[in-house]
Amino acid sequence: MFLRRREGFTLVEIMIVVALIGILAAIAIPSYTTYQARSRRAEAFTNVFAIIQTSDAYYSEYQTYVTTGIPVPGGLGAIQGTQKRQWTALAQQTFSQLGWEPEGSVFYDYGTNAGTGGGQACSCAPGTCVTATAYGDVDGDGNLAAIVYARGVPGSACPDFLIGYLPVPNWYSQPATYTNLIPPSAPF
Fold first, then answer.
1. Residue ranges making up the domain that contains 141
2. Residue 2, number of CB atoms within 10 A of its CB
3. Is residue 90 within 8 Å of residue 188, measured between CB atoms?
4. pTM here?
5. Residue 133: how many CB atoms within 10 A of its CB?
6. 167 near 180, Cβ under 8 Å?
7. I need a labelling partner for 169 at 20 to 30 A (CA). Which of 4, 6, 43, 182 fits?
C-alpha cells in the first residue's frame, strides 16, 4: 500500500495564515500612521522654535516683537491634511520682516502674535511678548491642531493669533501642543 503525498495547503491552514496577517495588519497600520503624523509634526516644532529665535533676534535689535497676521502659506481653508503646500510669495513677504523662511514645502500654516497689528489681545504690553503658532492637520482626521510657542511670562503673554490658545503656565518658552494648551474660554 502506497500513501499518496499531498501537495498544497488545506483550507484551514490558509485561513489561519489569513487571520494572522489580518491581526498583524490591524496592529501595524495604526502604528505606522501614528508614526507618520509624528514625523510630520516635527516640522512644526522645528519651525516654531526657529520663528521664536528669529523673533528674539529681531527683539534684541528693535526692542519689539512682530505680529505676522493671518497664518500662511495658504490660510486655514487650504490646509490639506497630509499634503505639503508650497511656501508662497505672500508667505515669504509676511515673514520678511523677521527674516525667517522654511526650507521647502510645509504641512503647517505659521503665524505670530505680539499684540501689534490685530489678532487676539495680549495681556502684556504690545511688542513685549510673542507667540508663534503652527496650524495643521497632519493626521488627516479633519481636526485642526495647533502647536504654540509662547515667549512671555505666564499670566502675561499673547495667545495664538486665530483661536486664542495659551500654553499652560509651565509650558512657556517651549513648544506646547494638545493637552498643554489652555482653551480661550478658560480663566488664566
1. 11-182
2. 4
3. no
4. 0.79
5. 28
6. yes
7. 43
Contact 164, 119 (CB under 8 A): no
Nearest to 58 by CA among 102, 108, 95, 93: 95
Helices within 63-150 (DSSP H only): 89-94
Q: How many domains does the chain have?
A: 1
Dig out the grid coordinates for 124 from the structure. Answer: 502684556
SS3 of residue 159 by DSSP? coil
In the numeric block, the cell 491634511 is attached to: 81
pLDDT for the residue numbered 102: 92
Output 143-146 pairs: Cβ under 8 A, ≥24 positions apart.
Answer: 144/76, 144/79, 145/41, 145/177, 145/178, 146/177, 146/181
pLDDT digits (tens, 9 = 90+) for 79-123: 666 788 888 898 999 999 999 999 888 888 999 998 877 667 888
On the 0-12 / 13-18 / 19+ scale of CB atoms within 10 A, 126 is middle
Q: What are residue 117's DSSP bridge partners?
A: none
Does residue 16 form part of some domain? yes
- Sheet of 145-151: strands edge to edge? 109-113, 130-136, 145-151, 175-177
